[in-house]
Amino acid sequence: MTARAIGPVDVRIGSADDQARARAAYESWGYRGGVQAGDTLFLAEQGGELVGVVRLTLEEGTRMLRGMQVAPHARRRGVGSRLLHALVSCLGGEECYCVPYAHLVGFYGQEGFAVRPLEEAPAFLVRRVADYRRDGLDVTVMRRPGTPVAGDEHGGTAPAPRGRSRDGQADCGTEEA
């Protein structure tokens, strides 16, 4: 099979108007995780077509990277790496967790995520991983550490940039290739 070339891909932060489109893309690609109202969407588009989505969520006080998905015809073309870089760029100094398939450890590692022992993960992630593994999924917990706040002896991390656009979504810029 010959790889199909794709044209220039734009990566941007989605708005509330993009949620239904992201849900539809997720469903067509077989991802069942959905999109929640408070999620920050990162979208990769090529010629108006949505070719990738990832979400930044806040769950039980923990920043999470969720739902990294790329359209089958756009895989292995750097779309996922571009989405990952855009999301990490918006973290500021915040730590962030993800629960990827074990074979994707190197992919997430390229942006500073590292495998963590399950017993060091937040309790809700321990439960989530147990559920995934019970379903036969080979997943692991990864964490990207936060940047310590200067003068904070309690180990706090710097908050991510929280500029907001008119529709309330995080606004930390866009990326274009």
Structure overview:
The protein has 4 helices and 8 strands, in the order E-H-E-E-E-H-E-H-E-H-E-E. The protein has 177 residues and is α+β, with helices and mostly antiparallel strands. It has a single domain (10-162), classed as 3-Layer(aba) Sandwich (Aminopeptidase), CATH 3.40.630. A 5-stranded antiparallel sheet has the order 4-3-2-1-8, with helices on both faces. It has a 3-stranded antiparallel sheet with strand order 5-7-6.
Short note summarizing the structure:
With 177 residues, this protein is an alpha+beta fold. Helix content is 21%, strand content 23%. The chain has one domain (10-162): Gcn5-related N-acetyltransferase (GNAT) (Aminopeptidase, 3-Layer(aba) Sandwich), CATH 3.40.630.
Features:
177 residues, alpha+beta, Aminopeptidase, five-stranded antiparallel sheet, three-stranded antiparallel sheet, 4 helices, 8 strands, 21% helix, 23% strand, globular, disordered C terminus
Oligomer: single chain
The CATH class is Alpha Beta
Number of helices: 4
Shape: globular
How large is the share of residues in beta strands? Answer: 15-25%
CATH fold-type name: Aminopeptidase
Q: Report the structural category.
A: alpha+beta
What share of the residues lie within helices?
10-25%
List the helices and strands and how they pair.
Layout: E1 10-13, H1 19-28, E2 40-46, E3 49-59, E4 62-70, H2 79-89, E5 96-98, H3 105-109, E6 114-115, H4 123-134, E7 142-144, E8 175-176
Antiparallel strand pairs: 1-2, 1-8, 2-3, 3-4, 5-7, 6-7
